[in-house]
What we know:
The protein is mainly alpha-helical. The chain has ten helices and no strands. The chain has two domains: about 120 residues, no CATH class; about 80 residues, no CATH class.
Amino acid sequence: MQPQQILEKTKKIFEAINAAQSIQQLDNIYAQNDLPRFYPANKYPRLHFSLNEDDISGIDERILNDDGSIAEEASKHIQDPLAKILYAVLWKNGDLQKIKHVAQGIKGSNTLEAVDEAVVFKQFGKHLANKQEEPIIDQHVLRAFSIYQATDVTRVNKILRQTNFNDWKLVQEYKECFKTLNSKKEHIEGWRSKVDQLLFSLGKSIKANRNGQPAF
Length: 216
């Protein structure tokens, strides 16, 4: 698919989301736009909890440092069996440092850089602390939104070559757009997650197209 077609299809899908009035209408957008369902719902079941700054501050200082990072000898002091398993999985995947970014997001850090490699995890922390105001983001969603914002093919081509979307200005603009897409519809059970899944699938389709794979 050519960049102009990607731009037109992306804008059409955003407009369809904005116009939808039911979960069924959101689901119909996939078939109406030949959009694959890329979102792995079984991999990301719904989160039924939230966390706030007091929760983070209440964690044993032998486990979590003041800056939100995992203490060097945290594994000596974790008692809960499930926490041990989760810690072990993070350790095995080399992801212990990501806890710091999530914790900083939960605590509402005011030291966020304009360009931030940890923007996705910090925003995830913000979401855990305030699900109504702070959406979950990822690279696919930000890619789709960047294309939606584009005004010409030159900009689309630049976005298609971009591998990371990591500035807070873009995140803030997306959050405003997300509010519009959900305006007067948040009372519908599952609406926000369905919109998120659609945009994830859209962004991943755009990436697949960039890599020469069939998309849309």
